[in-house]
Structure formats: structure tokens, C-alpha cells
Amino acid sequence: MQLSNPWKRINVNSEISLSNKIGVVIIGRNEGERLLLCLKSITGQTKQIVYVDSDSTDNSVENAKSSGAHVVALDMAIPFSAARARNEGFYKIRQLYSQVEFVQFMDGDCEMNAEWLKNSFSFLQPHPDVAVVCGRRRERFPERSIYNQLCDIEWDTPVGETKACGGDALIRVDSFEMVDGFRQTLIAGEEPELCVRLRAKGWKIWRLDFEMTLHDAAMFHFKQWWKRNIRSGYAFAEGAFLHGKSDGKHWVRESRRSLIWGLIFPVLAFVLIICFGYWGLLLLLIYPIQVIRIALLGSKTEKIKWLYAFFLVVGKFPEVLGQIKFYFNNYFNITARLIEYK
User: Fold this and answer.
1) Mean pLDDT score of the chain, rounded to an integer?
2) Burial of 275 by CB count in 10 Å (0-12 exposed, 13-18 middle, 19+ buried)?
3) Which helix (H) or strand (E) holds 51?
4) 98: which DSSP letter?
5) Cα–Cα distance, 27 to 64 (Å, whole number)
6) What pLDDT shows up at residue 10?
7) pLDDT digits over 92-104, tens only?
8) How far apart are CA 1 and CA 124, in angstroms?
9) CA triplet 58, 59, 65: central angle to 5 degrees?
């Protein structure tokens, strides 16, 4: 079915049935004031809310209960993953509100736009072949660090039919149950992996031209950014391992890029140095050349273009470490643990 400017179709009467048909699942741990903002932004749109807590030591559970949300406290004796938390939240929503047809997944460090549920619900109703919709996620404080700015750029993906969503998305219940939800063993990249399986069943994923959520990455240090990229590399490797032979070749390209720039070129440079002395260092000029190439192709401000290009290239090194970590764990059958950056 061909869709023409679908994000412009808004049914103003959709609010009548919206509150009964949509449930919200929030996951979090020690989010503090951010969780309060998250809950406040949702309670005005629907009361069908489940908060899944992963062993918070602050007052997150009490805050969620006082806001009217049902709380699921995860058993932390079982290996934690965001995928597992979201699944348990979904099961609770279905148990409490059997009439729910759509579930909005959110992270506890996000605040929902006041019009998002109405807009996304209005789009999904007349498009039964669409399983997932997401919108524009923005960083709340991009000016506070280059790492927050990098996240804000990352969230700004093209509008229209797409291959994947992120952690904030509205998902059709029937489609979610058809593929048995998120793959709980994944420690990262569970949303794109879910979308791979949905698309294999004929469902579509759509990004709407609407504001969806404000996110607070709270990344202020290089170490945080480095760990986040290790996690990305891990997700690339596992995604390619699971679905690399599918039609979409899920994350094969991303995995190869990380391996080439983060491992093959450095190893090759080392070999050339052994063989030809310092002349071998000339190969490393490929890195500043790549930074220049990416920066010149960018459309942001001059400062942001160069910073983005620099970190995109440097990011291949922690990404390849994440890939190595995945293959090591997979070979020795080691249970993966969450790679946290904050």
C-alpha cells in the first residue's frame, strides 16, 4: 500500500478511544527527577501505565506508584536486559488491561510529547499493516556536552517507512505477540532485532514527522561515550550473527565497517611498519582523510560537522572491542552482561 504524506493524517476524534486502547511501559533504574517528568508527561494522555524497575536504590518505585503506575520489580537474580524488562512490562499491561491494542515503550529518562500518542494512534488506526511507529526523539540538553549532541544527531533519522525503531516506540499488540516480543538474551540492539522479525512477517515500521520524546543521555565524559560505543559494537556483531544472512543483512555493513576501521587498518599499519619502517605509518593518514570526507559531506554547522566526523571515525575502535567481546562470549558460551555507560 502506497502512503502519501501519512504523518499529516490526523483524526481529531481519536482521543475518544485512545485512552482505552493504548498502554505505556516504562523501564528504568535510579532515574530520579527524570522519571517524575516521564510519568507526568504520560498520565495526562493515558492512565494505563506499567513501570518496570530494575533494582533502583532511590525512590523510583514510590514515585511511580504515587503517579498511578503499576510497578513490576524485576528479579535481579536473573540476568538483566532492557529486552526482558520491556517484555515483563508488556505481559503486565496485557494482564491488567486486556482491551489494549497498542503499547508505547519508553525509557525512564525520557519525557513524552503531549501530542505524540494522539498523532501516532491516528496513524496506526487506518494502516493495519504497520506494526511500529516512532517519531523524533531529541536530547533535552544537547548543549551540555558534545556527547549529548552526538546522541541528538543519532536520533534524527529519515521520516517514512524504515527498518527499525529505537527504545521509544508505539507497537501494535498483535504484531508484538506474533513474534513473541523482544529477544530477552540481547543486552543491546533489541529494538532493531525485533523489527527484523516483524518485517520478516510482512509488517512495516514507520517513522512519523512528529515530536515524540525528550531524552536525557547525561553523557559528560569520554569514558561514557566509549562504553556506549562498545555496546553498539556488541549489538552490531550479535545482530549480524543472528540475521546477517537475511534479505536485509541486518547490521552486516556496520559490523564490517567497525572491523575494517577499528582492527584491519591498524593491524595492517603495524605489519607495514615492521616491513618498511616508519613509512608504514603513512597508512594511518587514511583516518584524517576519512574525517575530512565525512565532515565535508555533513549538513550541520561547521563545528558540529567536524566533531561528528571525528567521533564517528574514532568510534570504530570501541565498536570493534564490542564485537570482539560478543564473539568471545559466544565462543565460550558466556552469559552476556549489560554494558552500562551511566
Assistant:
1) 92
2) exposed
3) strand 49-53
4) T
5) 11
6) 37
7) 999 999 999 999 9
8) 14
9) 150
Sequence spans of domains, the chain: 6-220, 243-331
Query: Do 74 and 85 form a contact (C-beta atoms < 8 A)?
Result: yes
Residue type, 177: E
* Single pTM value for the model: 0.91
Closest CA to 167 of 38, 318, 304: 38
Name the CATH code of domain 6-220 (choices 3.40.50.300, 3.50.50.60, 3.40.630.30, 3.90.550.10).
3.90.550.10
Q: What is the identity of the amino acid at 184?
A: Q
Cα separation, 8 vs 5, whole angstroms: 6
How confident is the model over 188-198, as pLDDT tens digits? 999 999 999 99
State the pLDDT confidence band at 17, using cuts at 50, 70 and 90: low
Q: For residue 100, what are the CA distances in angstroms to 46, 69, 229, 258?
A: 11, 16, 36, 41
DSSP H helical ranges for the chain: 15-21, 33-43, 60-66, 82-96, 116-124, 146-155, 173-178, 190-200, 222-243, 252-259, 265-276, 286-297, 302-314, 316-331
In degrees, rounded to 5, the angle at the alpha carbon of residue 261 between the alpha carbons of residues 257 and 267 is 130
pLDDT of 13 strictly over 90: no
Buried b (16+ CB within 10 A) or exposed e, 302-325: eebbbbbbbbbbbbbbbbbbbbbb
